[in-house]
Write a structure and sequence with these properties.
The complex is a heterotrimer.
Chain A (H helix, E strand, L loop, with lengths): L19 H4 L5 H24 L5 H5 L2 H34 L5 H8 L1 H4 L2 H12 L6 H8 L7 H26 L2 H9 L4 H12 L1 H16 L3 H6 L10 H11 L1 H27 L3
Helix pairs in contact in A: 4-9, 4-12, 9-12, 10-11, 12-15, 14-15
Chain B lengths: L1 H27 L18 E7 L3 H14 L4 E7 L1 H9 L6 E3 L3 H9 L7 E6 L1 E6 L19 E4 L4 H13 L7 E3 L2 H9 L5 E5 H7 L3 E4 L9 E7 L6 H12 L1 H9 L6
Parallel strand pairs in B: 1-2, 1-3, 6-7, 6-8
Antiparallel strand pairs in B: 3-10, 4-10, 5-8, 5-9
Helix pairs in contact in B: 3-4
Chain C lengths: L2 E9 L2 E9 L4 E5 L6 H9 L6 E6 L2 E2 L10 E4 L11 H11 L4 H14 L15 H13 L5 E5 L7 H17 L3 E6 L2 H7 L2 E6 L2 E6 L1 H6 L4 H7 L2 E8 L2 E4 L2 E4 L6 E7 L4 E4 L9 E13 L2 E7 L4 E5 L1 H7 L6 E6 L5 E4 L1
Helix pairs in contact in C: 2-3, 2-4, 3-4, 4-5
The chains are: A mainly alpha, B alpha/beta, C alpha+beta.
Chain lengths: 282, 267, 343
């Protein structure tokens, strides 16, 4: 699912389709065997879902309004969360990759904290800051009358919190790999730093940004722990698909399978079409 | 060369299996505790595996220590979790010896599958209104929760505390729209502890366990939604004898003492 | 449009300190071995490397106080650094766009420049679809399209193969002749410098060791590096009348001078003999053959001895003399073929 970032346009592509012709011949099974095992490891649980799915009752289960509501909410919040991540994450990645400031290494490590933090803990942390009695939340409530927990905006925040590191890491990697001298060349042509970023840097790292956004979106779509902790669970407002799946598991495992399959199908379709459109074309 | 390769070929699937096992127990601490393999052949098993509802975490851990002290050489392993999840694991063949559920319904899944004998109700748990310390929204009775200005958290109807809340509210003829249906009682309580909600319906035991941060308010309608906790030794228990003894301990006056101290009521 | 610069760039293990003056329309080549500081000097002029000291003035106005994007410069980089995501046309239009031209105006300017460098039909091509020579021309057009007052070229032909280089060099020469601003060219290729530049500045270890017109530099090298570049044997000694003493060797020369002096002569002026020759008075010394290699149509013999020298002789002569490395041999140079000048 994860699109690989190909170095389109920076000389890598000049060498033609790849070294396949030169190295044709023996396939190293030392690589193929674990590759096949890896594939099986990733795909078998999926097969399990498909086999155990209650196919006869599938249509009526899918037609339940709560299901579609949860799906819609999931897609909307994951997409907005991805936009938020792009808006904040790309500049952050740029800062980390291009601007030397004291404590940059520490910041770089801290930015990835949501990756290792159990999402539920992330949710609690969000509550402590943005909750009704949180450090910032208190002020938001008092000044604007805004409380974020238990709102759709809260879902977006929780998803963005958990998913942003994927984007930042991907974009920062692309920025570090991009040729800095192209930015210098742009400077000699009279481009300001903002113009350089917009017209040179960003197009150069576009594959990395797309890859990061896709990862980010996928992570946001599957987000459970931080969402249920920070935003709670209320149908139509904060109950995304993963939450619906979790609660369905309590009483109706079959319904949970149906919901999981639906989420999977939708995300695979969206990611596959995105991949064709953005990632494989130069 | 070929020898090295074949060693790698063995190592890789092994690593995968390990990784799969680790990721399995990371999520809810279940796979690890199922390792109640028979110990030495003559003396019988020395490990007792108990699957118990999350609300029993404190009390059962204490009883487990008592049990280990009374049966030197044995060790008691617990798998605490949502009763529904535990019931599912048991029906999927998890090698548990004892199952203590937070609702008769979840126990029923296990007995229906003929995996346990007749269960015994060992405690009952009653709902309380939990409010943050200081009770900022001045909640006094169940009716206050219908006020739209008051933020309420309920357990989701799929989990026992949620089912009980529905029953109590129905009995009182009240309609409460919460801001959230939480996935379990601990999560519900967390929202109260952090002050994110003004009130929640949770079990008396959970209010007690939360200490000073949460205040419990008893309400009469709670009597209409009392939760029975059934316990049973499982019919396929690897350590059948120990299982019976543990159930006896829970039902004994000593067990009752530990449980009531935590807020449970005798059946 | 004249450039006056005193460039000082101090680094932990390197210091560049040079004075540079370029008149309008003049092309100055910075020539020097790798690591001499040529590119650093160019980057300092462009504003890509900060000055530790000194100043840059262009037409009397300070340049070093401006950020790179504010300087009226055009720069052609060694590997061109065309933007891979933009067409040739948009690469050239990039500069005018940054200088405030509208999109259509910028494209019109760019199209005119592409026509001037003969690439109109490649306007829509992406850089990776262009040949090396075409990319070089796009890079030049891109640099000139902003109508700079100072043009900077960093090894503009180094990335091209030998055949293309000749063509592109000729074209570059034409474009430089048409450019009325100051041009600074960095190269390590003496031929490139001589063909393209009006004035050579030779830099070694961050300092200027020699400068002058190409002819002056070629005739009177002042360092071993320059001598090697222009293919001369070069010695430094003390002159008395028509003789120059170089360490233990006394060379007779054509010019009359006194004091510290250089003596230079081409390798082709060196004659080799198996036995000591008799007859006309020559500069004669015994040497040992260190190496033999092909050099164009001839063979170059490296000689060790009281003075180190190279000799160019024909392959036939090599066979006739039966030369092998390590062999001892007599070397001679006529005084009339040497050139002596004050050091």
């Amino acid at each position: 699912m994860t699109p690989t970032t190909t170095s389109t346009g920076r000389g890598g592509a000049r060498r033609g389709p790849g070294p396949v012709g030169a190295l044709a011949g023996r396939t190293p099974w030392v690589l193929v065997l674990p590759a096949v095992l890896g594939m099986a490891f990733l795909l078998l649980p999926l097969a399990g879902l498909l086999i155990k799915a209650p196919w006869p009752t599938l249509p009526e289960r899918l037609a339940e309004p709560q299901v579609l509501e949860a799906l819609r909410l999931s897609l909307v919040t994951a997409t907005i969360a991805t936009l938020v991540c792009l808006l904040l994450g790309v500049p952050l990645a740029w800062l980390l990759a291009r601007v030397a400031f004291p404590g940059r290494r520490a910041v770089r490590a801290l930015v990835t904290v949501p990756l290792v933090l159990p999402p539920v803990v992330g949710g609690v942390a969000l509550l402590l800051v943005l909750g009704r009695r949180g450090l910032v939340g208190q002020w938001l409530d008092a000044t604007f009358g805004v409380t974020l927990p238990f709102t759709t905006a809260g879902v977006v925040l929780a998803e963005a919190f958990v998913a942003m590191p994927f984007l930042v890491i991907s974009v920062e990697g692309a920025l570090r790999a991009a040729d800095l001298r192209l930015e210098e060349a742009a400077a000699t042509l009279g481009a300001s730093r903002w113009t350089i970023f917009r017209r040179v840097t960003l197009p150069l790292v576009a594959p990395g940004v797309v890859a990061g956004a896709v990862l980010c979106w996928a992570r946001a779509l599957g987000e459970f722990g931080a969402t249920i902790t920070f935003a709670g669970n209320f149908p139509g407002r904060t109950q995304t698909m993963p939450l619906a799946v979790y609660l369905a598991l309590e009483t109706e495992p079959e319904a949970a399978i149906v919901l999981s399959l639906l989420l999977l199908a939708v995300s695979v379709i969206i990611l596959a079409s995105l991949r064709d459109k953005w990632v494989t074309s130069p | 060369m070929s020898r090295r390769v074949s060693r790698w070929a063995l190592a890789v699937p092994l690593a995968l299996t390990l990784a799969a096992g680790l990721s399995g127990c990371g999520s809810s601490d279940q796979a690890g505790s199922t390792a109640s393999s028979p110990g030495s052949s003559g003396a019988g098993p020395t490990t007792l595996t108990v699957f118990a509802a999350a609300s029993l975490t404190g009390t059962f851990t204490e009883l487990g220590k008592t049990f280990e002290a009374a049966h030197p050489g044995t060790s008691v392993k617990f798998n605490f979790g949502s009763s529904a999840t535990l019931a599912q694991q048991i029906t999927q063949g998890a090698p548990a010896d004892v199952f203590a559920a937070a609702s008769p319904a979840t126990m029923k899944t296990v007995t229906d599958a003929s995996l346990a004998g007749t269960p015994t109700t060992f405690v009952r748990n009653k709902l309380q209104i939990a409010v943050p310390a200081g009770n900022p929204a001045k909640v006094d009775e169940l009716k206050d929760l219908t006020d739209p200005k008051i933020k309420v958290a309920l357990c989701a109807a799929q989990v026992p505390c949620g089912a009980a809340a529905v029953k109590a509210l129905d009995a009182a003829g009240l309609k409460v729209t919460p801001v959230t249906y939480e996935q379990d009682v601990k999560a519900t309580l967390t929202k109260v502890e952090l002050g994110e909600v003004d009130a929640a319906l949770v079990y008396t035991t959970d209010v007690l366990a939360a200490g000073d941060k949460v205040k419990g308010i008893a309400f009469p309608e709670a009597d209409k939604a009392i939760n029975d906790y059934p316990i049973a030794a499982l019919s396929k228990a690897p350590a059948a004898e120990l299982a019976e003894q543990f159930v006896e301990l829970v039902l004994s006056p000593q067990g009752k003492d530990v449980l009531t101290k935590a807020g449970f009521q005798a059946p | 449009m004249s450039l006056h610069a005193h460039l000082v760039v101090a680094r932990p293990r390197f210091r560049l300190d040079i004075d540079l003056t370029v008149a309008p329309g003049q092309v100055v080549a910075l020539l020097g071995p790798n690591g001499a500081g040529k590119t650093t000097a160019l980057r300092a002029l462009a504003g890509l490397t900060g000055l530790s000291g000194g100043h840059i003035t262009l037409d009397g106005a300070p340049l070093h106080t401006l950020a790179a994007e504010r300087r009226p410069i055009g720069m052609v980089f060694q590997d061109y650094l065309l933007f891979p995501h933009l067409s040739a046309l948009d690469n050239v239009a990039f500069g005018p766009r940054c200088h405030g031209a509208s999109k259509s105006d910028a494209r019109r300017t760019a199209a005119a420049w592409l026509e001037r460098v003969g690439l109109t039909e490649h306007a829509r091509a992406r850089p990776r679809q262009l040949s090396g020579g075409q990319a070089q021309r796009v890079a030049l057009a891109r640099a000139l399209a902003i109508e700079p007052r100072l043009l900077l070229l960093d090894e503009p032909l180094a990335a091209l193969d030998a055949r293309t280089r000749l063509d592109v060099r000729a074209q570059l020469r034409r474009h430089l002749a048409a450019f009325d601003g100051a041009t600074v060219l960095v190269t390590h290729d003496p031929l490139e410098a001589m063909v393209l530049a009006d004035h050579l500045v030779v830099i070694e270890n961050g300092a200027i060791v020699q400068q002058g017109t190409p002819a002056q530099v070629a005739q009177r090298p002042r360092t071993d590096y320059v001598a090697r570049l222009v293919g001369l044997n070069l010695y430094r000694g003390i002159a008395t009348g028509r003789q120059v003493k170089i360490e233990d060797v006394l060379l007779s020369v054509a010019e009359h001078l006194d004091g510290p002096a250089f003596v230079a002569f081409p390798p082709a002026a060196v004659a080799l003999y198996r036995t000591r020759p008799d007859g006309t008075p020559r500069n004669l010394w015994q040497a040992r053959i260190e190496g033999i290699e092909r050099h164009g149509d001839n063979v170059r013999i490296h000689l060790e001895g009281p003075i180190t020298a190279s000799a160019d002789i024909t392959p036939a002569a090599v066979a006739e003399l039966d030369l092998t490395p390590g062999q001892r041999i007599w070397a001679a140079v006529k005084a009339t073929e040497t050139h002596a000048y004050p050091a």
